[in-house]
Amino acid sequence: MNINRYIDHTTLKPTTTLDDVKRLSMEAVEFDFAAVCVPPPFVNAAKTFLGSTSTAVATVIAFPFGYSALEAKVAESVLAIIDGADELDMVANLIAIRGGDWAYLEKEIATVMPIVRNKQRKIKVIIESGILLEDEIVRCCELYGRYGVDFVKTSTGYAEKGASVEAVALMRRHLPANIQIKASGGIRTFAFAKELISAGATRIGTSSGVAIMKEAASLQ
């Protein structure tokens, strides 16, 4: 397993510095990670650090709570694309999910999707599976699957519970085959990453990418 190509090497702490982003980018180049995921103000810098390598630049939209106004999500998405982001990890409106306002959630994704698609970018919708009921996860899969997002993502990493094998497996059962799953939140070991991949994840969002690679190498 080439675990490196599953990894979105991530730094999203609110005190992230330019040096952090440079180090993250250089590690991503060294290990040929799928992407780096950085705060919106650092998208342009990460793009510069990565140059013409195969590592994509991802950033977050409405992070970490998801309840930004739709107009704010649109503005963040447009700016991220202008700055050079290849992939947008957007937090769904969790208040709407818990309140059962599926009409609002549909309006949200229907508004953002054309912006992303018109510029040939990828979108990952974060649903915070660790704090949702099973039927809410299923409804999310049905909605975002219908709109053809690139990934449904388990977690921001800021809720009390992150990725789980059970949630990934549930999502895989209820998503169309062409919709991928990004597992994130609390993934610090190669063993856990492998479990999530076996359950159906095709991306692993983690700030422990280097440690995972070293663990994988030690097992060969």
Could you describe the 3D structure shown?
The chain is of the alpha/beta class. The protein has one domain: TIM Barrel. Helix content is 46%, strand content 16%. The protein contains nine helices and eight strands. The protein has helices at residues 18-31, 43-50, 70-83, 94-99, 102-118, 134-146, 165-174, 190-199, 209-218, and strands spanning 7-10, 35-38, 56-61, 87-91, 122-126, 151-153, 180-184, 203-206. It has an eight-stranded parallel beta barrel, surrounded by seven helices. Strand 1, helix 1 and strand 2 form a beta-alpha-beta unit. The longest helix is centred in the middle third of the chain and has 17 residues, at 102-118. The radius of gyration is 16 Å and the shape is globular. The N and C termini lie close together (11 Å). The relative contact order is 0.14. The model has no long low-confidence stretch (mean pLDDT 97). InterPro entries: Aldolase_TIM, DeoC, DeoC/FbaB/LacD_aldolase, DeoC_typeI. The active site is at residues 89, 153, 182.
